[in-house]
Structure formats: C-alpha cells, structure tokens
Amino acid sequence: MMMMKNVKEDKFLSIRLVRFLMRVTGFWPAESEIEKRLLNGVLSYTICISSISLWLEVTELYLGKGDFYALTYTACSSMPVVIIMLKIIFFLRYRKELLNMLKYTQDNFWYAQYDEYGSKILEKINKKGLILMCTFTFFVQGTVCTYILTPILENIGKNESDRILPFNVWIGISTTVSPIFEIMFIIEISALIHCGICFCCFDNLLGLLNLHTAGQFKILQHRLKSILMRVERTDTVRLLIEKQKQKVYEKLRECVILHHELIWYSEKMEQIFMYSTLCQLLVSGIMLCVAGFQVFLARGTLIRRLIFIAHTNGCFVQLFVVTLTATDLMNESRAVGDAAYNANWQVLSHEENRGVRTAVLMIMIRSARVCSISAGGFFPVSLETFMAVLSTAASYFTLLRKFVE
Prior knowledge:
InterPro entries: 7tm6_olfct_rcpt. The chain is mainly alpha-helical. The protein has helices at residues 13-25, 33-63, 68-93, 95-110, 116-154, 180-227, 234-239, 242-296, 302-341, 354-367, 383-404.
C-alpha cells in the first residue's frame, strides 16, 4: 500500500488522540533527534512521577493497616498506580518493539491509500474508536477531577492547620503551613493528572490497534470476495486468456501475503500487550469490588463517594473497551476463512487453476486459528472475559460485605 501525503496524517481524530496521550507519556516513535531527546525526557518524568505516586500510596497503606475502611479507601487509589508502574515496566521491556510496531502501523494502516471500501472502513473505525476512547478518557479524568475537588471543597472554612491535601504526605514536617502546603498541592495535582493520562493511554492504544487490525482483516475479506466476483460458471473461467488467469492468481497471492502479514502483526501485538492485559484483568475485579464497597458500605461524605463512583465507571469502561475491541479482532480474523470460502473458487478448473485453489485453501486453513490478544498467554481476551471479571467482582463484593457484617 502506498503512503498518503503528510497533510492527511491528522485526518482521524482517534489517531490524533492516541498519539497525543502516548507522546505525553514518552512512548511514541520520534521523527528527529531533537524529538527523540524530548520524548526520552518525558519518559523520565513519567517514571519519576509514577514512582513518587507509588511511594505515597505504599506509605499510606502501611500507616493505615489497622483500619479496614482506610485500607480499602487507599487501595482504590493504590491499584491504578500499581497498574501504571507495571505497564511502564512491561513497555520499557518491549519499547523498541512497540515503537517499531507503531511505525509499521503508521506506514501500512493509518497513512496508506485505500479504495472507496477501505476508506469507509477507516471512517467507521475512527467513529467507533472516538466513542470508546473519549468515553474511557472522560471517566478517568472525571476520577482525577473528583480527587482534585475533594480537598478544595473540604478545606472551605477550615483553619490553616486543618487543611488537607488530596493524598497524605509523610515527610517529617508539617504540610499544612504555607508555602509547603501549596507546593505539595501542586506536586500532587501534577502527579495525579499525569497518572490519569498514563492509566488510559495504553488501553486506548491497544483498543485502537485492535480496531485497525480488525479493519484490515475486513478489507482483506472484501478483496477475497471481489477477486472472483465476475466468475459465475466454469465455462467462463475456460474462456479467460492466460494473462487474465495469471492476474487472478497474482491478486490471490497478494491476499495470502497480506493475510500472513496481518497474522504476524497480531502476534507481535499480543507479545507486547499480553502481560499488561493480564495484570489489568487481575486487578480490575478487585478494584471494582473495593470501589463498590466504598460506595455502598463505607462511611464517607458525598463528595468522597463520588470518587469511587468515578473509579467504578472508569474501570468498567476500561474493561469494556479492551474486551470489545479484542472480540472484534477475533471475529474479523475468523471471518477471513468464510470470505475465502465464498469467493467462487469452486467454479475454477481443478487442472488449470490448482495454484489459485491452493492459495484459497491456505487462507481458509489458517483462518481456523483466530488472531487474538491473550492475557499472559493463558486465555484470549473477549467479551466473555468482561463478563467473567464482573462476575468475579460481584463475588468478591458479597464476601467483603459478609466479612464487614
């Protein structure tokens, strides 16, 4: 596929959103040496601010170990930070592979030339991706806003010595006096906003890559169906001149190569994302349970309950985005075999078109094994996984409620 002009690089808002979020965290291919240094600096900032956030949460968990309600309260803010650190570690391990994959995606998926059908597919992907990613990002940043607004509202009318920060800081000196309070407040807000971006950027990227890979499989299905669309009877094939037969074979050969490349791309994507996906699924069930506990059973003000409502919504949408797009990838990769079967190959002469029939058969056989994103290599992620995590969270919540009672 040929490259488009650079003026069309910003055509799709979903791609622009993902690129912005990933650049803010430092995980994006650089186009120049200056940009490379800048992204390395941003990545260093991301690691530093995430480490500080993790230290704050671990300290708070340790000091609140005697209070069950305090532990569950802190756990809601601790688990996202733990997930962020784990994802950063995993993606640092595969950073080179991730950047190479993003370059390949830009060259072959996002900025390539398409026919009318392919352009419609990309438009649909853009709309669906925008809805999913904007919804997820909205709820994550909504959680960030509730954490920011809570101390601001609760500090109204309080003395200087009674002021509170979004998160407690244990550094051996009083954090309620000026200007230490203002400095710590700005640092915590900056860390909170950046952690919110880190929490949603990797899953938004995975969701968009799933959608575009599924879209490429759908385009391949259309190509397979249209190659032999005019062939209706065996006699028609016999009347084809040798040049036309060779052209049909070459088109099918291109489809086989494209199918092989998409399979390779899907396997590479799974290799990069499978461990972060596993950690996310393991933590999501616990997080939904703990956040639900704080909403319905814990003692707290309305504004603090809103924090955990936002937590629950964000975690729910996050699971839905990842599992829905992974299901699309599985379904479209499986449908390639059906498209090859429906490509009128049965009317081809067995003696004179053996190469064409063999190419179609290869695609059908390989499509029997679907492409998917697995959770650590243990099981493929799909909407069934989404329901399983919700069921597990409900079970944990029931046990936790009985424990408290």
